[in-house]
Design a protein that fits this description.
By secondary structure, the protein is α/β, with parallel strands linked by helices. It folds into 2 domains: about 250 residues, 3-Layer(aba) Sandwich (Aldehyde Dehydrogenase, Chain A, domain 1), CATH 3.40.605; about 180 residues, 3-Layer(aba) Sandwich (Aldehyde Dehydrogenase, Chain A, domain 2). Helix content is about 40%, strand content about 20%. It is built from 16 helices and 23 strands. It has a 7-stranded mixed β-sheet with strand order 15-16-17-14-13-19-20, sandwiched between helices. The protein is globular and about 85 Å long. The chain starts with a strand and ends in a 17-residue tail after the last strand. It binds nicotinamide-adenine-dinucleotide. The site of nicotinamide-adenine-dinucleotide (NAD) has 26 residues, from helix 8.
């Protein structure tokens, strides 16, 4: 059986823990490979390599580091097709979506290509008599990233793209469910000219995550995954004195105002709710039509839209979405559908019985649609992370605004309307981190930043853009004078520059 190994100090490392995780092909349900799960000793080896590499890498000038990023981008583009296929066959998302996953990561690499400009710092000439003040951003040393299964290319690139460009070295602990693409990215980074040890990949579970959180030479940890683990990583990592950003789960709402272009909104929401089988943290699993008329019309049109959806294997170019990542995840989604029924929501479309001919053992689940979902229901309060769309009816704009604002998660939200004033008021008042106006999945472009509010993110900085640069650097401020002539008395009071 194919074995997926760690990537430490520029080489494949089998590891000695004797523990492995199964890698499924979600299309067929078969185990297609096994991944080595690290023990503390593999992490120690990766950190030792990263520490050595960082001493050299931090001295490489920024434009040379940027050139490695340019070459990495070129190599990933040249490998787009095999990478997308590898990703689809471990994750289950369709090829077009896998290419999107890689492309959105590459956009952060493009941002990292401009790192010399970003790192220039600030300078004040003559802040006092003969005194100049300037600041510089310096790398932290070794940083680590712990990533989820649902974007195995984009999220690692969000993290290591910036961390490495600013002069850190990096330990990536990808999801143990789809680890092949992250390893390939690390190999391509070496091919692009990064010295060995600059990017290491260590696979594993809680054992290695805990070791990362405790390792004294790891200065910063970026995490993306579910909220309980995000909170755990944030608490434990910060208690160990590290800088930590930890993004968590989501339950994004789409508000449909009575004046919205309903046909467009239905298409957009269908793509955002069911695309990638709902396994996106920016998916739109809750729709809030405002007013009974909007709700009835939306429900009817969404039903017709669902009829047109094609679920297929991840390499089927005609399929809108493929299987979910594991049988256990499919079971979890099915359990939530049953719970929704038991809680009294109206299950209009039930995707549980879906089976794909010839792929009966694959982890497929059809689209499901609920109406009459109420805020007190667990299925509304919790993240399902599957192809399940819930209609929560609201009577007024204020009621609709309150729903995402009061929800425990605050990752993304979208409003569909033709009224600019209403959209502006919504964007200003809603208690959520990323807002779309007639945009169903408002994932910000790479030079802005990504991050939710409330239980969708712990820590103060977002992912990528300038927030990413801040997270992976520390600021040093220098106050300099070059006195000449007679020695002056130093004052014993706090110096001012009057
Ligand atoms: P997960 O929390 O199960 O796993 C994320 C990472 O944590 C993995 O690397 C995993 O190995 C590790 N991990 C799992 N259990 C652990 C434990 N007990 N102790 C220490 N580490 C542990 O998440 P997932 O299922 O891979 O991904 C889906 C989740 O990620 C969803 O909740 C989704 O909303 C969220 N997500 C959030 C964002 C965001 O930016 N907010 C983006 C993508 C995904």
């Amino acid at each position: 059986m194919r074995e997926i190994t760690h990537f430490i100090d520029g080489a494949s490392v089998a590891g000695s823990s004797g523990r492995f995780g199964d890698i499924f092909n979600p299309n067929t349900g078969e185990v297609q490979a096994r991944v080595a799960l690290a023990s503390v000793s593999e992490l120690d080896a990766a950190v030792a390599s990263a520490v050595r590499a960082q001493q050299v890498w931090a001295l490489v000038n920024p434009q040379r580091r940027a050139r490695v990023m340019f070459d990495f981008k070129r190599l990933v583009e040249a490998n787009m097709d095999p990478l997308a296929e590898m990703l689809s066959c471990e994750h289950g998302k369709v090829i077009a979506d896998s290419k999107g996953d890689i492309q959105r990561g590459l956009e952060v690499i493009e941002f990292a290509c401009g790192i010399p400009h970003v790192l220039k710092g600030e300078y004040t000439e003559g802040a006092g008599p003969g005194i100049d003040v300037y600041s510089m951003r310096q790398p932290l040393g070794v940083a680590a990233g712990i990533t989820p299964f649902n974007f195995p290319a984009m999220i690692p690139m969000w993290m290591f793209g910036i961390a490495i460009a600013v002069g850190n070295t990096f330990i990536l602990k990808p999801s143990e469910k789809d680890p092949s693409v992250p390893v390939r990215l690390a190999e391509l980074m070496m091919e692009a000219g990064a010295p060995k040890g600059v990017l290491n990949v260590v696979h594993g579970d809680k054992t290695v995550v805990d070791a990362i959180l405790e390792h004294p030479d790891i200065k910063a940890v970026s995490f993306v995954g579910s909220s309980d683990i995000a909170h755990y990583v944030y608490s434990r990592g910060t208690a160990a004195g590290k800088r930590v950003q930890a993004m968590g789960g989501a339950k994004n709402h789409g508000i449909v105002m009575p004046d919205a272009d309903l046909d467009q909104a239905v298409k957009d929401i269908s793509g955002a709710a069911f695309g990638s089988a709902g396994e996106r943290c920016m998916a739109l699993p809750v729709v809030v039509p405002v007013g009974a008329k909007t709700a009835e019309a939306f429900r009817e049109k969404m039903l017709a839209e669902i009829e047109t959806l094609k679920v297929g294997i991840s390499t089927d170019g005609a399929a809108q979405y493929g299987p979910v990542v594991t049988a256990a995840h499919r079971q979890k989604i099915s359990d939530y559908i049953q719970l929704g029924k038991d809680e009294g929501a109206e299950l209009i479309v039930d995707g549980r019985d879906f089976a794909l001919q010839g792929y009966e053992k694959g982890f497929f689940i059809g689209p499901s649609l609920f109406d009459q979902v109420k805020p007190a229901m667990r299925t509304y309060q919790e993240e399902i992370f599957g192809p399940v769309l819930q209609i929560v009816r609201a009577e007024t704009f204020e009621d609709a605004l309150a729903l995402p604002s009061n929800h425990q998660y605050g990752n993304g939200v979208a409003i569909f309307t033709r009224n600019g004033r209403v959209a502006r008021e919504f964007a200003s008042r809603v208690n959520v981190g990323m807002v779309g106006i007639n945009v169903p999945i408002p994932v910000p472009v790479a030079y802005h930043t990504f991050g939710g509010w409330k239980r969708s993110a712990f820590g103060d900085t977002n992912q990528h853009g300038m927030e990413g640069v801040k997270f992976y650097t520390k600021v040093k401020t220098i106050t300099a004078r070059w006195p000449e002539g007679a020695v002056e008395d130093s004052a014993f009071v706090i110096p001012t520059m009057g």
